Amino acid sequence: MRAIEAANDRLSFAELKARSEVLPHAFYERPTIEVARDLLGKILVNRRAAGVIIETEAYLGGGEDLAAHSARGLTPRTKVLFGPPGHAYVYFIYGMHECLNLVAEPDGQAGCVLIRALDPICGLAAMFRRRPTARKPSELASGPGNLTRAMDISRAHNGRDITKGSLVVRKWKQEPPLQIEVTPRVGITKSADFPLRFLVRK
């Protein structure tokens, strides 16, 4: 049986909504590193597809983090990164991948969190249609480019307020405990030694 035919949602979308609530702007209006850690275990939702966030990376403002897009200063492309917090920053990379970042820090200060991987829980059949090469649920949203394809997130979402509408992040009303691993970020050459990658330890 093909994976798409065997895909079972872990819970219904109605159950997800009943057991969780949307994160407010205040959650994001904090230091980027705190937001990156605290996003682990939260649920990224776009329309009726959802997955638990299991890997993030923090990108810092202030100019010291040379891997951050904000290091180039305020430009038409990067203005979303300077606030207000709680908005999506979506960019295109390598001519093939779109990457979702969530803006952190108080308004006027740059900072964002790259969402690198999800554990899908709702809308798996639709995710498999969007990611036909995936063979099992754990492959659907592993890596930032796969994640945006599986979740149908694109540059059309750039600048979107993620506290309302179809693209939101929710938190469980009863959050399970997590073990978190911290490592240097991956796939970059500048500021590569910064320990700003956060993962849910398996």
SSE diagram, text form:
Layout: H1 3-6, H2 13-19, E1 20-22, H3 25-28, H4 32-38, E2 43-46, E3 49-60, E4 88-93, E5 97-103, E6 111-122, H5 124-130, H6 137-140, H7 144-151, E7 167-172, E8 180-183, E9 197-200
Antiparallel strand pairs: 1-7, 2-3, 2-7, 3-6, 3-9, 4-5, 5-6, 8-9
- Looking at the structure, the CATH topology is 3-methyladenine DNA Glycosylase, Chain A
Main beta-sheet strand count, sense and barrel state: 9 strands, antiparallel
CATH architecture: Roll
The total count of strands amounts to: 9
* CATH class label: Alpha Beta
How many DSSP H or I helices?
7
List low-confidence stretches: none
Q: What Rg is obtained from the alpha carbons, in whole angstroms?
A: 16 Å
Task: List SSEs in N-to-C order.
Answer: HHEHHEEEEEHHHEEE
Count of folded domains: 1
In words, what does this structure look like?
This protein is α+β, with helices and mostly antiparallel strands. It has a single domain, classed as 3-methyladenine DNA Glycosylase, Chain A (Roll). Helices cover 20% and strands 29% of the residues. It has helices at 3-6, 13-19, 25-28, 32-38, 124-130, 137-140, 144-151; strands spanning 20-22, 43-46, 49-60, 88-93, 97-103, 111-122, 167-172, 180-183, 197-200. Strands 1, 2, 3, 4, 5, 6, 7, 8 and 9 form a nine-stranded antiparallel beta sheet that branches. The protein starts with a helix and ends with a strand.
Key descriptive features of the protein:
single chain, 202 residues, alpha+beta, 3-methyladenine DNA Glycosylase, Chain A, nine-stranded antiparallel sheet, 29% strand, globular
